[in-house]
Design brief:
Blueprint (H helix, E strand, L loop, with lengths): L6 E4 L6 H4 L1 H7 L2 E4 L6 E5 L11 E3 L6 E3 L10 H8 L2 H19 L6 H42 L1
Antiparallel strand pairs: 1-2, 2-3, 4-5
Helix pairs in contact: 2-4
The structure holds zinc ion.
Length: 156
């Protein structure tokens, strides 16, 4: 654990995303991770970030120095970080937007053809979410697999 820790920066307006709500700032302010040696960007996470899966260390492709990249494997992730990993700001915002549109439709008393609009809205809102969760599940499965392999080699 003597390797240097990666730099982490918030590119954006303000760090007080908790006050303003995570919807806007979550989308507009990506978190940038840099190599602590040469400052090469190795990862950009949308939103406040902090949570991504990995072995915890990596080698910089530019300067070839090893460093701690702030990643964790899924089995070692705290519950709150697991939640943030699956539901970051922009996913919460997306779900909120879908709910608001549903509400406004019911407020307008469905003057439009209900089934057509419903189908359209469902496809529009659900498809990206399904893709998102499929993508995240893939990452989690890979992380758990890596973790198990790692544990075995350490035990041996
Ligand atoms: Zn580097």
């Amino acid at each position: 654990m003597d390797k240097p820790l990666a730099f982490k920066e918030r590119e954006g307006l303000s760090p007080s995303f908790a006050v303003e709500g995570s919807l806007l700032t979550g989308v507009l302010c990506p978190t940038v991770y840099r190599c602590p040696n040469c400052r090469r960007i190795y990862k950009i996470v949308l939103g406040p970030g902090d949570v991504f899966l990995g072995e915890g260390e990596r080698e910089c492709p530019k300067c070839k120095k090893a460093f701690r990249d702030r990643s964790l494997e899924w089995p070692t992730l705290p519950t709150l970080d697991r939640f943030l990993f699956l539901f970051p700001g922009f996913v919460c915002g997306w779900i909120l937007l879908a709910l608001l549109i549903c509400l406004s439709f019911s407020w307008l008393e469905w003057t439009l053809t209900i089934t057509g609009v419903l189908m359209g809205a469902a496809i529009f809102f659900v498809t990206p979410l399904v893709a998102w969760f499929a993508y995240r599940s893939c990452q989690i499965v890979r992380s758990v697999h890596r973790f198990n392999l790692h544990g075995k080699t350490k035990a041996a």
